[in-house]
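REQUEST FORM: STRUCTURE PREDICTION
Request ID: SP-0412
Submitted by: Lab K.M.
Chain count: 1
Length (residues): 173
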Amino acid sequence: MNGIVAKRLVFAVLDTDKDGVISRDDYFSRIDRLTAATGRGDDDPMVVHARAAGERAWSEMDADGDGKMTLDEYLAWVGVEAFDTICSPALGALFDLADADKDGALDRPEFIMLRTALGNPAGNAEAAFDALDADGDGRVGRHDYLMSIRAHIGGEDSPMGAVLYSAGTLARD
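STATUS: Completed
RESULT:
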């Protein structure tokens, strides 16, 4: 999948209300859904950390401070460098929030909970777990998870990205 298509697919998932922009509400609704799915309270240290990482990411994403990011702004901003410095810490904090036993890996239910809270259809999340669980041990490690997203954003081969952000994601719009 080429990088532009991959980025458009991610944008479509981030634009939760499908109004053509990623708003602050769109972005933070992901953290809210994951917090609810994990049963944690807003004062839980993992939630506080995820929100702080989200705040840092959003402040970089919304560089002009207008509270929204258009597709053109997103395409100009997102890439491997932005992933490494901005997205990876925020996505890592969300991964950690979903990691109930804090072992650095997600089992299938944790992974599906994470990805559906982030806006992916459950079937895509299940296929993405299978793509990442290459050794069949029933677990996906944090590093492999983040590197697969990085590869997807960079337009590289990412079996997880290919199924997680399928063209069907855009068809829901």
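NOTES: The chain is about 65% helix and 5% strand.
Reviewed by: T.R.
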